[in-house]
Amino acid sequence: MNSTDRFQAWTDGGWRQKTGIGGWAYVMKPSSDGFVQDEKSGTVYPDDGPTNQRMELLAVIKVLDALPDRAEVTVYTDSQYVASTVNEGWNIKANIDLWQKFVDASMNHEVSVQWIPRNSVPEHERADELAKAATKPGLDKDGEEG
């Protein structure tokens, strides 16, 4: 595996109880080049059952889906739920559908998940901003202002 196959990603997710709208986001860059970034975010509407935990996990899945085949990635998350479930083998009692997607998406990659304090680095601050923006009312199903 060469250096272009290694990535770092910072993820965040959130849910607004008042509107029921969830949002996820990530900032990703190759480990070998700190200046190239890929930023993505998305909106999840109430009919799709967003929660904070689901949005945090969905952000990680979106990173894995965006990677080239057989990549190495270190995912940094402020979600104790995601990091502890992956690293400490917490018993999965909820969000089974998304955990199955995580397992499927990680099959062709070497994945490391590390917990970090909220907004502890600029990349995570940016993911937080994008996830919060994705939860704002006034966005259509594609995340565009309507």
From TrEMBL:
<protein>
    <recommendedName>
        <fullName>RNase H type-1 domain-containing protein</fullName>
    </recommendedName>
</protein>
<dbReference type="GO" id="GO:0004523">
    <property type="term" value="F:RNA-DNA hybrid ribonuclease activity"/>
</dbReference>
<dbReference type="GO" id="GO:0003676">
    <property type="term" value="F:nucleic acid binding"/>
</dbReference>
<dbReference type="Pfam" id="PF00075">
    <property type="entry name" value="RNase_H"/>
</dbReference>
<dbReference type="InterPro" id="IPR012337">
    <property type="entry name" value="RNaseH-like_sf"/>
</dbReference>
<feature type="domain" description="RNase H type-1">
    <location>
        <begin position="3"/>
        <end position="136"/>
    </location>
</feature>
<dbReference type="InterPro" id="IPR002156">
    <property type="entry name" value="RNaseH_domain"/>
</dbReference>
<feature type="region of interest" description="Disordered">
    <location>
        <begin position="120"/>
        <end position="146"/>
    </location>
</feature>
<dbReference type="InterPro" id="IPR036397">
    <property type="entry name" value="RNaseH_sf"/>
</dbReference>
<feature type="compositionally biased region" description="Basic and acidic residues">
    <location>
        <begin position="121"/>
        <end position="131"/>
    </location>
</feature>
